[in-house]
Each structure stands twice: as C-alpha cells, then as structure tokens.
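Morning!

This is the sequence you dropped in the shared folder:
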Amino acid sequence: MSRHVVVGAGAVGSAVATALAARGEQVRIVSRRGGGPEHPSIEPIATDVTGRGTLARLTGDAVALYDCAAPPYHRWPEEWPPLAGALLEAAEHSGAVLVSAGNLYLYGPVTGPMTEHSPIRPAGAKARVRAQVWQDALDRHRAGRIRTVEVRASDHLGAGSRSLLTGLVLPRLLAGRRAFVPADLDAPHTWTAVSDVARTMVAVAAAPATWGRAWHVPSADPVSIREIAVLACRHTGSAAPRLHTLPRAALWLGGLTDPTVRALRETQYQFRAPFLLDSTEATATLGIAPTPVAESLAETVEALGAAHRSRSATS
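The structure's back. Tokens below.
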C-alpha cells in the first residue's frame, strides 16, 4: 500500500482519489476547502498549497503527486505560476512522480486533429501560462531533478465537469430554456470523460516508461454541440433543444462586465471550427478504451439534475 497525494478536489481530483482508493492505496486529497470523496482510504486536507513548503511536507512519503487543481478560469495567469511552483518543489523534495492533468490550449488554433507531437503554439495568456507550466516541469525532468508526465484532455463530460457545455448550455436546455452558445453548433468537437482522465493519470503514474512526455486521454469520436444537446434532451425526456449561435460581438460585449465571459474570448477558436483530439497513441499504449459519449453525457445530465434538485430543496 502506497501513499498518493492529489491536489484539487474537483471532478478530476475526486475521480483520481476514488480510483486510487479502489485499488487499495492511501490517498491524501488536498484543496482549500478540504473537500473530496468520502472513503476510509481518502484523507481530505484543507490548506493553501502555495504556502511555502506546505505541499512538500504533505508529499514527503508519497510515491505520486497528482496535479488536478483548477484555479478560477479568468485568473489562470495569476494563480497558475505559484501553484506550479509548489507542485515542482514538492515533486523534487519527495521524489514522487508528478502527474498533471493538462488540456489542449497550448496547441493554439489548429487545422486538423491534435496529436501528442503537434507543435506547441499557445495563443493567449491562459494558453501561454499552461504551456510554460509544462515546459518548466519537463525541463526539471530532463535535468534529473523530478519525474513528471502530463495527460491532456479536451472539454470534460461527467459528474462535476466544468466547461462551456456543462456550465452554460445544458443547464438552460434541461430547464426548457433557450441556449445562446458562442460556437459553431455543428462543428465536430472532442469531449473527454472525467473518468477516463482519472484512469489515464493513474495508469501513467504506475508506468515509468511513460514519463517525461505528454499523453492524450483516450477520448470518444467527436460530436457536435447540437448532437450533444439532442442526446441530453432525449435522455431526460425534455423538449427538443432550442439552440442559437451567439455572435462574436455579443461575447465581446458580455466580457466588458463579466470576467469569465471575457476569458472565453481567448479560446473561441476551439468552438468556431472542428476541434479534434487524436488519442490513438495513448489508447494503444495504455490499453484504455474511451467511455462512449452517450454514457458520460448521461452521467453529466444526471449530476446536473441532482444539483438542481438540491438547490431547489434548500431555496
């Protein structure tokens, strides 16, 4: 039985902690609020990991350190550097392999499917900071100071997932309302199941041959936002979705007063054209079959419904 430390108690961090506990491992899940799954093998800890030496002390006896943190979307440029610094310090101090949950931002606008070998061309402040965080970790790995590996996913589906789809589109449609989406509704888009992110992180943590590079999380075939919306409404028996494309100008205006909406401007290229992740290399190497979109979407919809009922009961 080994010790594992998971930073972040959101959808991915909770899924990683649950997967590790199911294997009989001892898990510390660290977040500012001290949340996480309830399990006898999971120890939740509430702390700010960016405090000097804090995370290093918590990771001293760990074999693996999982970066599943998610700073507020509009504050990535400010909050990622100190968080990344704490993770690198803890990995170097403890010798634990640092396994990071990454995304596809660092590739920038693309014209075809993204592979792990696509050039790094970040466009915008959020993409640049994520690219720099990975480069800093990789530089330390190559210098022999730490051991690290990154797994990259597209927009998440699954219980607790947070994305344009799960935060803006589905809640409105499932409430019988119109949804105005800053996207090409019919562009094919890759979606990644949160459970597959967790399975991939746990798999690479235990496989030294995979370290020192990035892997794409095995993901199902791409599906457009319109197709997703139809499937979601069909799953709940809701009326046919009423979807409309939000013009770029409207997004720009909304961003004048809302920092999260303003942050979405930077990644419009991901939703105004096909956005395709190629995960064949990881699927073949790790032997992980991606969860079908219908299955991860059903989990998403059921979790959104449960959250809505909970809010209604307490209001």
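Headline: The longest strand covers residues 26-31.

More detail when I'm at my desk.
O.
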